[in-house]
Write a structure and sequence with these properties.
With about 70 residues, this protein is an all-alpha fold. The chain contains 3 helices and no strands.
Length: about 70
């Protein structure tokens, strides 16, 4: 293995570590906000679309929660 190969391997290894770390962080965020994610999913299943303002109502801690449509 020459110097360029070693450098490429080291870079690839660091990139892999970074990607794995980011992936785990993303999963943790989704787990932390699972209830909210489920609420938005239910809203989308019933309404099919959501505006940016409606979505921000869900994610903004200061905002009033959007009411999901009642189930038939």
């Amino acid at each position: 293995m020459n110097c360029a190969d070693e450098t490429a391997y080291a870079a690839d290894s660091e990139i892999q570590k970074l990607l794995e770390s980011c992936y785990e962080q993303a999963k943790a965020i989704l787990r932390e906000h699972r209830e909210l994610l489920d609420e938005v999913a239910l809203y989308l299943l019933q309404k099919e679309t959501i505006t940016g303002d409606e979505l921000m109502t869900y994610v903004n801690a200061e905002g009033k929660r959007l009411q999901a449509p009642e189930q038939p």
